[in-house]
Amino acid sequence: MTIDSWKTIEREAARLASVRLLDLFDTDPRRVQKLTLTAPHLVADFSKQHIDDGALAALAQAAEAADLEGWRAKMFAGDEVNSSEHRPAMHWALRARQPRPEIAAVRQRMTAFANKIRPEIDAIIHLGIGGSDLGPRLLIDALKPHRRKGLDIRFAANVDGADVVDAIDGLDPRRTLLIVVSKTFTTQETLANASFVRAWGPGHIAAATAAPDKAQAWGVPADHVFEFWDWVGGRYSLWSSVSLCCVVGLKDGVFERVLGGAADMDDHFRTAALERNVPIIAAMVQVWNREACKRGSYALIPYAERLRLLPAYMQQLEMESNGKHITRNGQTLTRPSAGVTWGAAGTNGQHSFFQLLHQGVDEIPVEFILFKDGHEGPPGHRAKLFANALAQSRALMVGKSAEAARAEMLAKGMSVAEADMLAPHRAFPGNRCSTTLCIDALSPEALGALIAFYEHRTFAQGVLAGINSFDQWGVELGKEMANQLAAPLQGGSEPQNLDPSTAAWIGRLKT
Ligand code: F6P
Question: Which of 106, 193, 317, 445 has the maximum number of C-beta atoms within 10 A of its C-beta?
Answer without folding.
Answer: 193
